[in-house]
Every structure is written in C-alpha cells, then in structure tokens.
Amino acid sequence: MNRLRSTLTDPLVLATLSILVLLAAGEALSPGFARGDQIVRLLVVSAILGLVAAGQSLVVIGGREGIDLSVGASISLGAVLAGNVMAGQDGSIFLAVLVAGGATFLIGLINGLGVTMLRIPPLVMTLGMTGVVQGALIVISRGIPSGNAAPALMAFVNRPLVFGLPGILILWALVGVLMWVLLRRTRLGYAIYAIGSNERAAELTGLPVRAIRTLLYGLSGLFAGLTGVIVIGYTGNSFVSVGDQYVLPSVIAVVIGGISLAGGQGNYFGAMLGAIALTLLTSVLTTLQLEFWGRQLIFGAVLLMLMLLYGRAGRLRA
Amino acid sequence: MTLLLKAESITKRYGAVVALSDGGLELEQGEIHALLGANGCGKSTLCKIIAGTVAKNSGTLSILGRAVEIGGPREAEALGVALFYQELSLVPQLSVADNIFLGREQRSGAGFLDARALRRDTEQLIARFAEVAGAGFSADALVSDLSPDQRQIVEILKVLARKPRIIIFDEATAALDRNQVALFFAILRELKAEGVSSIFITHRMDEVFEITDRITVMRNGATVARFVTAETDRQAVVHAMVGDVTALAERPAARPRSDKPARLVLESVGNKRVQQVSLSLRPGEIVGLGGLQGQGQSSLLQGLFGAAPFTSGTIRLDGEQVRISRPSHAIGKGIAYVSGDRGRDAAFHGRSIFENIAAASFSKERPAMVWPGRLRERFTKAAATLSTKYAGLSAPIGSLSGGNQQKIFIARWLATQPSVLLLDDPTKGIDLGAKADFFALARRLADEGAAILFYSSEDAELLSLCDRILVFNSGAVAGELEGEALTAYNLTNAAYGRAA
Fold it and tell me: Domains of chain B, with CATH numbers?
C-alpha cells in the first residue's frame, strides 16, 4: 500500500501517466490527435517550452526560493535581437544566436547579482527585470514587429531533418543529455544540488555559493535567449511580447517534473516530461475550444494542485 | 528576611534526557542570588521553569509561602517574575518610552494609545535612574541616539516597567565592558534597596563575589549546595560545582609530548567574538577548548576555518604564514571542520549519502568531471573507518540516525585526508556508542599524525581525550591545563575566569 502510494506520488510516474491520459483524451475528442505527425508537432512545441524550462530548472534546483520570472522578457529580447541580426539571411544565423544568447546571459547574470549580492528576493528581482527588458524592447522596436527568421532556421525548427524528426527535437534531446551530464557528472552539478539543499553547509564545504547561484541565473537567461531564437524560427517573425506566454508554463513544467520549489531536488528529465504533459494539456484544451483565459485558469489550478500534492508527499516522507 | 520564592524538587525531562532531577532554589526578598554550575547542570532550565517559558514535570514552586503553578510567561509576569535577556532587541527608530512599553501600551477608552499615561509612567521610571543615566536620556529620546550604556538602561527599564518582584539575569553581563558592568551593578544594588530580588547567572566568578548575597550551586540537574557569599570562598564553590573528584573517568596514560615542530600556530588572532588568542598545535596532539558554552570556542574554530574570519593576528601552518578568509582556503590547506549542529551546518537534506560525503573532497581536489563509480570505493572506506551503519551510498542522508549521520559528516572530511581537524562540539546529541567510536577515531587520527582542536561542551569528554586544554572565558584564553593539572576542578575554576 505504502509502495503503491509512493509510486503514485513519484513525479516521473505521475508525469508519464498524465501524458498517456492526455493523449488518449485528445484522441477521443478529436480522432487523429495522437497520429505520428501530430505528435511530432506537439513535441516541437514541447521542445520550445522545454528549452526555457532547462534554465528554470537550474535556478529552482539552486534553492533560496529560486525562480526566474524574467524568462519571458528574455525570450522576447532574444527573438527580437535574433530577428533583426538575421534579417532573413542564413549566413547571419550564428551571429544572431551569439547576440541573442550573449545579451540574455548578461541579463541573467544581473538577476543573479541582484539575488546574491543585494539579497533581493528572486521573485522581485526577476519581475523587476521583466519590466526593464520589456520597456527597453518597446523603446527600441517602437512596438512594431520586426526582424525575419532565416530560411535555414525555420527549416531547422519545422522540417524533418533525420528520421522524420525536425532538428529542434535533436537539439532538445542533446540539451537533455547535456543537462544530465552537467547535473550528474560535473563538480558544478553536485555543487548546484548542495547549495539548493543547504546553503550554509555548502559554504562550510568550501563552495562559492554566490558565484554559482549567479551563474545559474545567467544560464537561465541564456536558455531563454536561445529559446527566443527558436521561437522566431517557429513563427517567422518576432514581436515584443512573444515570450510572455512561456513564463507560467516554464514554472509549471518544472514542478510537474518533480523539481521542488524549495530547491536541491529533482532533475531535468522530469522537467522535459513536464513540458510535454503541459503542451498536451494546452492542445487538448484548444481542441475543446477553450479561450486563452480558460487555459490560464487551468494552468494556475494545475500548479496549485501540484504544490498541494507534492507538499503533502514531502511531509509524508519526512 | 522573608522567603520570596521557593522552588523544591523540580524535575524536567526531554524525552529520555533528564535536564533537571532535583532543582531547588530559595530566594529571599531583596537579595542578589547567584546560580552557578557547569555546562548542562540545569541552571538555565530551572530559570526557564521559574519564568514560565518551560513547563516542569514535577516539583513545587511557591511565592511568599503560597504554592503557585506557572503555566506560561504571562502568568509568570503576573506573579512578578521577569526574565532579562541581554540581546533583548530594542527598536532604534522608536523613543525610549515607546520601547519600554512596546507591546504593553496603555489604551485609552477608545482603544487608542494613551500617550499621556505612557509618558507619565516612563518619566517615573527614568527618574529612578537619573544619577546613572547621563545626559540626553529622556522619555522622548530616540534609542538610536543613545550610547550603548544608555541602551543597556532602557533594556533594564523595559523589565522594570512590569514592576517585577523577581528578576532573572541570565548572563546579563556577558557582552558588557568593565564600565557597563559597574553601571549594571549600581542598578542591581538600587533594585536590591527597593526590595526586588535578583537571580544572577554569570560566567565570571569575581562578579559573584562582588555583588551577590548568597549562592546556589547545581550539578547534573540537581541543586547540591547553598552558600552565604560572605562566608565562603572561590575554592569551596568550585568544589561544589565539580563534585566528588575521584568519581571522574580514568584518563589514559599521558603520552609523551611530541617534539615535532608545530603544525598550526595562532598568534593573537581575534575578531568580534575572539580576543587575542594564541596557541600552537603539534602533529599528533589533541588540544581541547574548554569553558562554559559560548565563550568563543566555536568562534575560534570557525575563524580558523574561514567561516567567520579573524580580523587580526596571524595564522601559521607548518611555519608558513597563511591567510584564511573563506572555508575553501582552509580546505585547500588540509583543514577540516566538523560542526555539532549537523542539521544546520552539515547535512544536505534529501541528498544521497554519496553526495553528502563527496562535497568536501570535490572542494579540495576540484575535479571538473565526476565519475561516481570510481569514488564509491574510496567513500565506502571513509565511512567504514567509523563503522557507520547504512544501507548504501545512494540511500538518502535522512535514512540514518543522528549518530550515523554525524559519522558520515566526519567521513566527508576523512576522505580529504586533513592534517588539521577542527571539531566543534561534534558529539552533541549523538548516542554513547557513536561517541565511543568517535573518540577512538580521534585518538587514532592523532596517532597517525593529525593535529586536532577539540571543543566540547562536556568537560568529561575534554578530560578523557585531550593532551592539553585551553579554557575560554569571554572570548579569551583564561587558562591552560596540562598533565597533572587536567582535573575537573581546575577546568571549572578556569572556566569561571582567572582567579583574582
């Protein structure tokens, strides 16, 4: 009985089960929902969310109430910068990635410095940063959609590359492997869990807690910026609020995947499953012709329900 | 004289631990009464019971001959018992009057603050201290504008505003300098003249003989002796605190003093909590840090480890001057730090035993990549030296008992092969079996050439393990014991400050 309960509250099991249930529900509501090419399309959308969630995972695992609400603004910034640098030219893709990634990495580092050196709560720091970046974006672009994706980038995101899978899915799988290597096979990864689990103990074992946490926010910005590049590849052009819709989902995906908001727990594989489950949920809700507000409502409810569920499970374990 | 407070056969258990087995205290009206004893003798528990912050299991309390049950701090206050905390926080942005009555403001009929009554009461209080308070001390003065001495007076007024009959001063003079202590004593005498009784806990024996009328001594949770201060001397009091000296554990045969050059030398190091401490530590030596709790022993170890760095003095390792301003410096130089507060200072909660052991080794060796398979054998060996019982390296740390967890945190440092071990009350809250394993290990490590600084809040542990003991008082070394001088009597005597 106990084993059954602990298996059922294992986030990975829960995420996998919800994916299967949602697939079945989608197929029942609209036959063809679970067809191969449809699933590939869903995975592409999941991959975009999954890339943001990679940075979000790192920040949340790093602890001290870690959360990055500025990922939306960084995605928008990345998309606008990349779109303008590329201006539809394949030859400029590399430069676009560099500029978008560099700028958002820097913004993330500033978040990190605010959180570690000035001890601003992450929620406030990253929310404030969102305002700053969005304001700057509107000033720069005057609110008009600008920039064009290069054809090669659009193909990379939308067209099959190998085994009928678009390049973006290969990239996502690669990020998954890299995240595993980072967290489980490097000293830095062990340090991330350590500072997330007990900051004081981490300091007393010689870890540079502030530097590591600052880096995590930097990486979150970087992942968001790169996601912005993918987003413009997905949609073709960019506008200043394109990233907003990813903020809440990136947090929910992380929580579905079993990464504790208290820090020091969980892994990116769970967040990947979370991204897929959440994308499926969105898709099923769209099939039901639920409006944007309805989806937001359900997202919020899912997040709160998960907090309740895992909060209880955590207490039972302790 | 009238007997104001009488506490008789008070007991208090925390689970299986008996904190008080037979606590007693007789306090007369208008006296200053010292309550003395070694660490863990139960004096703080007894005071907390009298002040209503801890509930007793059995025993009787009576005030002016009438039995009372004190169910909480509010009830104690109503009976006229007040507890004075040194670090009682004042709010600097508020006035003296507001601070004194904070949380207990008088209300007018409509529920608003009765500012006039507040002012009147404050001025009455202040008038009593007009002579000692100095310039600029008034009801309306902001606390942020006051001198440290004046703030001290506000702290005391805050207690007096409750019109207590009994005030418990637990280490009230610990953070005070000489002038402040003199001022504090002047106030204490004033209170005495007004018929207020004080229970006075201190770690300075000369203060006991300067100010108190009578002394109650506690040992191992029981009240064992009562003295009239004027009719006794320091020696008799310390003997009462230590008890039957022959009952002490047998010390291992003294080992010949190592003639190797010192591994660690501290030259008048200091910071906020440590004053001018000098010591030298040879390979193979276990040097104890003794004294009452909180006299700078932990701060010395944390300073040396770089967690709360020294601001003055020099550190030499193997003859070479080194700078240690953060733990990673210390770890890089082969220094290890084991804290007794495992949950706060050591445990990576929810992480595996493997990760909990690995942390220090990674900091020292700085590998970029981690291959758990190659490290398992080494960590298993480190854990095995302490005969730790655990299911496997991937089990979560929380699956272990307290004693076994502490063994894992020691294994964490053994895996780095340290040459200097700093042990900060490492056996706190672990079972006897684990303690024995731990002592055997410390001895063996020393024999293998490690240099060990060992702070324990239990005198018996220090006496049975250490080659030498430095006794701390108020952040400084008050005495050094070695060889024949390593006795419980000398340890307690030195803990209460240098003999005048």
Answer: 3-246 (3.40.50.300), 264-495 (3.40.50.300)
Residue B59 has φ and ψ, to the nearest 5°, of 110, 170
DSSP 8-state symbol, B369: B
Pairing of strands B264-270, B320-322: unpaired
Q: Which residues contact A87 (CB under 8 A, 6 or more apart)?
A: A147, A148
The CA distance from B184 to B195, in Å, is: 17
List the beta strands (DSSP E) in B119-181.
Answer: 166-170
Residue of A nearest to B301 (CA): A204
> Is B169 exposed, middle or buried, given 0-12, 13-18 or 19+ CB atoms closer than 10 A?
buried
d(CA B130, CA B118): 18
* Residue B62 region by backbone torsions, left for phi larger than 0, else alpha for psi between -120 and 50, else beta: beta
**Closest alpha carbon within chain A to B307:** A204
Burial status of residue B420 (CB atoms within 10 A of its CB: 0-12, 13-18, 19 or more): buried
Whether B371 sits inside 8 A of A185 (CB atoms) is yes
Q: pLDDT (tens digit, 0 to 9) for every residue of chain B, 500 residues total?
A: 789 999 999 999 988 778 899 999 999 999 999 999 887 788 888 999 999 988 999 999 999 989 999 888 889 988 999 888 655 568 888 888 888 887 776 666 666 667 777 778 788 878 777 766 777 788 888 888 887 778 877 888 888 888 899 999 887 777 677 777 888 888 889 889 989 999 999 888 889 999 999 999 999 899 999 999 999 998 899 989 888 754 445 556 566 666 789 999 999 999 988 999 999 999 999 999 999 888 999 999 999 999 999 999 999 999 999 999 999 999 999 999 999 899 999 999 999 999 999 999 999 999 999 999 999 999 999 888 888 888 889 999 988 888 889 999 999 999 999 999 999 999 887 877 788 888 899 999 999 999 999 999 888 889 989 999 999 998 999 999 998 889 888 998 999 887 54
Cβ pair B150, B137 in contact under 8 A: yes
Is A197 within 8 Å of B330 when comparing Cβ atoms? Answer: no
Residue B150 corresponds to which amino acid? Q
Alpha-carbon dihedral angle through residues B124, B127, B129, B130, given to the nearest 10 degrees: 160
Parallel, antiparallel or unpaired: strands B420-424 and B335-339: parallel
| Angstroms from A314 CA to nearest CA on chain B | 10
CA gap B160, B94 in Å, rounded: 18
A197–B398 CB contact, under 8 Å: no
Q: Which residue from B348, B366, B369 is facing A198, i.e. has the nearest CB?
A: B348
Give the long-range contacts of residues A199-202, CB within 8 A, separation 24 or more.
Answer: A199/A63, A199/A64, A200/B344, A200/B345, A201/B344, A201/B345, A201/B346, A201/B347, A201/B348, A201/B359, A202/B348, A202/B359
**Three-state DSSP class for residue A233:** helix
B207 within 8 A of B184, measured Cβ to Cβ: no
Q: Are B379 and A190 in contact (CB under 8 A)?
A: no
Q: Which two tokens stand for residue B103?
A: 């949380």
Closest residue on chain A to B328 (Cα): A206
Token pair of B260 as six digits: 């190797």
Chain A 274-313, CB below 8 Å of chain B: which residues? Answer: none
